[in-house]
Every structure is written in structure tokens, then in C-alpha cells.
Amino acid sequence: MSGSSKLKGAPSLLKKPTRPRTSGRSWVAGAVVASLVIWLYDKALVDEYMVCSSSRNIYTVDPSNPRVECVLVKGHTILDTGNLQDIQSRSASTSYTGVLTQVLRTIHNDYKVFHVDPKSIVVPGLADAHAHILQYGSMMELPLATATSIQDVIQRIKEYILAHPEIQNDKSRWIEGMGWDQTKWSGAEFPTAADLDLDPLLKGRPISLSRIDVHAQWVSPRVLELMGDLPLEVEGGQIIRDGVGNPTGIFVDNAMALIPVPAWNEERMAKFFDTTMKAALAHGLTSIHDASSPPEYISFYKKKAEEGNLPNRLYLMGNAAASSEGYWGAKVPRLINYGKHGRLNVRSVKLFTDGALGSWGAALLAPYSDKPETSGLILTSPEEMSSLIHQFWKDGFQTNIHCIGDRANHVVLDILESIIVGKNANVTGWRPRIEHAQIFSLEDLKRMEKLGVIASVQPTHATSDMSYAETRLGSERIKGAYAYQTLLQLSPINVLPIGSDFPVESINPLLGFYAAVARLYTDGTSPHGPGGWFPEQRLTRAQALKGMTLDAAYASFSENELGSLTPGKRADFVVLDRDIMTIPFADILPTKVSATVIDGKVAYGAL
Ligand SMILES: *[C@@H]1O[C@H](CO)[C@@H](O)[C@H](O)[C@H]1NC(C)=O
Ligand SMILES: [Zn+2]
Fold first, then answer.
1. Which domains does the chain have, with CATH numbers?
2. CA dist., res. 19 & res. 526, Å (int)
3. How many whole angstroms separate alpha carbon 336 and alpha carbon 343?
């Protein structure tokens, strides 16, 4: 039950009936009455409250009632939205929880009302439609995203070792880091294993460092030693070699599977999970779509859900490819609103078509403009991909497919077309998603419209890549890249779910909001000036907010329960300390989350 401490008015109400009487019998009767009143009170009013904004700054993302003064919450549900007076008169005439509620409300002198600051706004709980939950926690152990050089990376690893005596004293302990990006360093060349032996503190240790896009791994000489003989070629991957054919220490895409990094045990998963959940709630996230959960993660989350220990709603995309040959649908359980709070859902799978643009791994229809010897990497052959997607569709799994390059998108649209058109599939029931949906030929953009496939996009990828994307792609192909406004306009159901891909990008959804609406670096500039990079592809603020709420809910089959402040839906909402829907772009990023509420309960901050 909800704690009665939430409601400050409670004790004064309870005093009268609990006042002791003189005789023993009436004392018992009094106790019975008191218990009954407490029970009724708890049932009827304790978990009922209103949140109001005198400036009507509650953005509901409900088209029938987009901006309101108040939201009435009971338990985990939104009961009503609108003007304070209207809500009061509606609830007086159509009692929500019966006559007793009305009586108690009268005794109690009306509702508990939280008035948010007139400058603040209330929006539905934010979703991240594409993220990597445990990897974020892992990255926070040794974050490298802001490293400015190889020397800087080495320095950070040294500090990490010195801060962890258990690692310092055990040279066999693996060191894992994440976030390096050679495109930010002078020279922009891939680093090498030898770099990680330059410092005596690092020398001889197994070190494995993930590139910011998680599509390349940089390892130390000790790891190369542990790996022993390597295959000459890896399908869908690449072992970078020097002039005489020796591996340099960089493994791209499928070749990363060769690195014998130990699996995370439950204790480490729990640590990473806690780190991520704290950060997520602090940034207003109430739903996260995990964009690749192997069976061991799913078991971990399942246990957490059963214990009632999921602070956030999780929508997992299962992936058992690493431990399987061929079709692996049987290894992904189906869980709908599962667990003590009903916060876990597993009904989708994640497939990978190609690599990423930063490491020239995105599969292109024609060679890279800045590296004509390659057109990128197809990680899963089109034949195998086709057979997998067909089987996942037949088995009723939503099928979410990583596609960055125009060739990856082309190949996957061929397959989806053969199912949607060729087999007359029910797209509304299946809701296949293309994750990233980053680069399309102009003809394939039209097929997105025809097929109604969901484009699941990450606006911060546009702003992170805009310094080099046109160099990689050239002036023609760039027109079909990061084309978020076009993708939204083409969506027959008007849906464009937005995510961050954290830890590839920041976990802060306001950065995604800013990138979507401004297409600027955080300092207000862009390769096309202060008006934004390809500004015609900017989203409006209303479109971006809907992408982070209702569209993400649709993409996870929960649009009837989540994504807008609508009576009957779950009471997930966020209070922001300023109005991101109207303030200048530059003021969006300093915005703070005052409160994150999930299932009607404050999970971060205060109302
Ligand atoms: C398609 O699926 C949706 C959602 O499951 C369902 O409501 C609809 O009736 C289905 N349409 C057809 C034609 O089967
Ligand atoms: Zn991802």
C-alpha cells in the first residue's frame, strides 16, 4: 500500500475517530471504527492528488486537450485533466471512487494539490526509444567520450587504476572503457594496441575500450596475446592490420566477438543497472527501450521486475544471436506488463544489418566519398536476414532492425516489403521498426511511406555526426540522411519515436530534444551556421515532445497506457523548471528536472 505519510492532511483527519473513550468496550468499538476510517481513507484519498499549473503549463501530448491547468491522479492512474474547477465539479457529479470518497473529501477539505511554479512545465514521462541500459552503467566506470587524444585516454585509465586498488593490485583484471572517438583527435586515425602499453601502469594489462558507437573495439597487446591466432577474415567484421599484416588492436563489428572479455556477473550487472536507473530518473525518463538484450540480461531484468525493483519501465528488444546458430526466437521470452508493477515488456527482437558511419561500417549502396575502397559492412547476409525476419514475423515478434547506411535500409525494406505487401502482413499488429533509419536513397524514403515501417531515430546522432557526415557521404547522399522531418511527414501513422542510443550519446533526453528542434551543437553553431544543419529537417517542439512520449509508446505497443496525460493512462510525468516549448534554443540545455513521477509516485526530486 501507499504510505500515508505522503499526505500531510492525514493525521488531523484521523484524530477524531481515534480519540480514546472511557469504557473498554467502546474503546474496542472506537478502534474498529478508526481502522475502518484509516482503511477507507487510504483506499479513497491517500493516493489521490492533483498537480496544477496556474499558467496552464501542463503539456499533455493529448490532441483532444493539449494544455491544461490540472491533472488529477489516483494511485498509478490519471483520473482527469482540465481546469481545477471543472475537475472538481466533474468529480462531484460523477464520483470516481464512490460516495464514501466524496464524504471523506468533504471532511478533508478537498484535494491535496501540488502547485508547480508558474515558470515550470509538466510533460508526460519521457521515453528513450533506443538505449543500452547496462552499457551506460558500464561506461560510467571509465568514461572516455570527452577524451581529446590518445594521451588523454591513457591518463584516464591510469586514474581509474589508481582509484581501484583491487585492479591496481591484480594485473590480470580486465579493464573495460567506453566512448573514445578518433574523429575528435588530431589526425583522426584509429589508435593501436601499442598505445596502451606506453605507460608502465597500463603495460601488460588486458584492456578493452569500446568506440563511442560500440562498433569498434580497441584492445591492449595483452588482449592480442590472449587471443592467439586470429582468422584472416571475419564475415561482417574487420580486423584492422598494419602494413605487414599484423593486427593493430582495432576490431570492427563482427570481429569484436573474438575478444575474450569476461561476461558480466550479476553483481556487476546490478551495479551498472543502478547507475543507469538513477541517471535516467534524474533526467525525466520513465520508459526505456533497451536496444539489444541477450537472454542473460532478460533474466536479470525479469528477476528485478518480480521483486518490484524496476524503477523505470523497460521495453526490451531481445537478441540471442551471440549464443545461437540460425533462428533464435525460442530463446526470447514473451513478457507483457510483467512483474510486481507491470513495468517489464518483452515482445520484440533486435537485428543488426550494418555497422556505423563513424567507423566506415555503415553499408552504403556506393563507396564512401572519403574512403572509396569501401562501401561499409553488411553484418548479416540479406538471405539470412530475410529468413530471420520472416520467422520473427510469423512468431509474432515485433522486429526492430539496426540500419544506418542506405544499402542496409534498402536491403531491409526489400525484406519488409516482401512480408507487408507480399504476404499482406498486418503492419499495425506487427509494428516493425528500423532503428537509426539514418541514410536512405530518395526512392527508399518513399517506400517508408508506402510500407508504414516505424523509423526509430536519435537526433543527437545528427548533431554528433554533422561535422563529418557530408564528407563521408557526399553532397547528394546527404539529402536522404538524418531526414527526420521528411521521415515524420512520410509516416502514414504520423509516428517518429525518438531515442538517444545512450551511452553512445548522453542519457539526457533534453539533448535529443535540442538536437531535434535546433540541429545545432550545444554551443549554438553548426556546419551550416546558427540556423541549424539542414534546418528543413528540424522537428517542431511539439513533434519532438510527441516523439519522446506518445510515439515511443506507440513503438512499444503502449499508446493506450502511456505517452500522454490522458484520463485512464498511467500517471507518469515530469516537471521541468522552464518551458522548453517556448524558450530560446540556448535555454533548453540548462533546463532542470524538478520531479519525475512514475505510477503516480515521485521517483526523483519533489512536487
Ligand atoms: C491488425 O492488428 C491490429 C492490432 O493488433 C488489430 O486491431 C486489427 O484488427 C488487425 N487488422 C486486421 C485486418 O487483421
Ligand atoms: Zn544502439
1. 2-118 (no CATH), 134-258 (3.10.310.70), 273-562 (3.20.20.140)
2. 69
3. 9
Ion ligand 2 residues within 5 Å by Cβ: 291, 501
Protein residue whose Cα sits closest to atom 5 of ligand 1: 429
Distance 557 CA to ligand 1 centre (A): 13
Q: How far is the CA of 252 from the centre of ligand 2 (A)?
A: 15
Strands annotated E in 259-312: 285-293
Q: How are beta strands 121-124 and 433-436 bridged, if at all?
A: unpaired
Of the candidates 577, 581, 578, 545, the one whose C-alpha atom is nearest the C-alpha of residue 564 is 545
**Separation between Cα atoms, residue 159 and residue 174, nearest integer Å:** 15
Distance in angstroms (rounded) separating the CA atoms of residues 72 and 529: 45
For residue range 133-184, list pLDDT tens digits in order: 999 999 999 999 999 999 999 999 999 999 999 999 999 999 999 999 998 8
Do the bridges between strand 207-211 and strand 454-456 make them parallel or antiparallel, or are there none, so unpaired?
unpaired
Using left for φ > 0, alpha for ψ between -120 and 50, and beta otherwise, residue 312 falls in: beta
> DSSP class of residue 197?
G
- For 522-545, how does the pLDDT look when each residue is reduced to its tens digit (9 = 90+)? 999 999 999 999 999 999 999 999
Q: Any bridge partners for residue 239, and if so which?
A: 251
Residues 124 and 51 sit within 8 Å (Cβ to Cβ): no
pTM: 0.88
Ligand number nearest CA of 502 is 2
